[in-house]
Design brief:
The protein is mainly α and 203 residues long. The chain has one domain (3-200): Up-down Bundle (Four Helix Bundle (Hemerythrin (Met), subunit A)), CATH 1.20.120. It has helices spanning 3-22, 29-53, 59-81, 94-116, 125-144, 151-158, 168-194, 196-200. α3 packs parallel to α5 (125-144) and α5 (125-144) runs antiparallel to α7. The protein is globular, with a radius of gyration of 18 Å. The model has no long low-confidence stretch (mean pLDDT 88).
């Protein structure tokens, strides 16, 4: 197994650790979860870069790398639905998570259908942008709910009040959620439309 594929496999384990810590209730679990998710996200970047530069692209990587991404982001968003802040607000609206998870399941189903026909569907640029927007949203959510535990450093960086209003992370986080949902929906629709011949011929 080459290095990019090892990084892909490692992302599955990091995601499992992230979920376990999120629901563990240990002290600073949000901060630990943030660190684990950042490591998983870095592995996502590295496996793609290494595979392209060293020409280590394999069918395993083409199929499993996007799957690892989907499991990573869906696990985080689903975990957020069940958590509330001090104002009794959910970290993530359920309808947003439904859109994200439905899109990822639909694309995974399309990939499986393509594989059954001996066709490998590689990830596309817009799909990568979607993943980046999701990762940014997840990191923003975790930072929003953990930066106050970081003392002066957290308050100085993320508690900074721009334009005399609330801390910038307070308005950036909701914005990042909307961007992620929009990118997710649009990229999914484009992917399904571009590859519609795969499923229309069986209908």
């Amino acid at each position: 197994m080459n290095l990019p594929n090892k990084l892909t496999i490692a992302r599955f384990f990091l995601t499992a650790a992230f979920v376990a810590v999120m629901f563990s209730g240990v002290h600073f679990n949000e901060t630990i979860s943030l660190a684990l998710f950042c490591l998983a996200s870095i592995s996502d970047y590295l496996d793609g870069e290494i595979a392209r530069r060293r020409k280590l692209i394999t069918n395993f990587g083409i199929l499993m790398d996007p799957l690892a991404d989907k499991i990573m982001v869906c696990s985080a968003f689903i975990a957020f639905v069940g958590r509330v802040d001090e104002h009794n607000r959910h970290w993530m609206a359920a309808w947003m998570v439904v859109i994200i998870v439905a899109r990822e399941l639909a694309i995974t189903g399309l990939r499986l259908l393509a594989a059954s026909k001996h066709v490998v569907l590689a990830a596309e640029r817009f799909g990568k942008d979607k993943t980046i927007s999701q990762i940014v949203a997840i990191i923003a959510i975790l930072v929003l709910h953990s930066y106050k535990d970081w003392g002066v450093i957290g308050q100085t960086i993320f508690g900074l009040r721009l334009f005399g209003g609330q801390p910038w992370v307070e308005w950036f986080t909701p914005l990042s959620k909307w961007v992620a949902v929009i990118f997710t929906f649009v990229s999914g629709w484009m992917y399904l439309w571009k590859n519609r011949a795969l499923y229309l011929e069986d209908m």
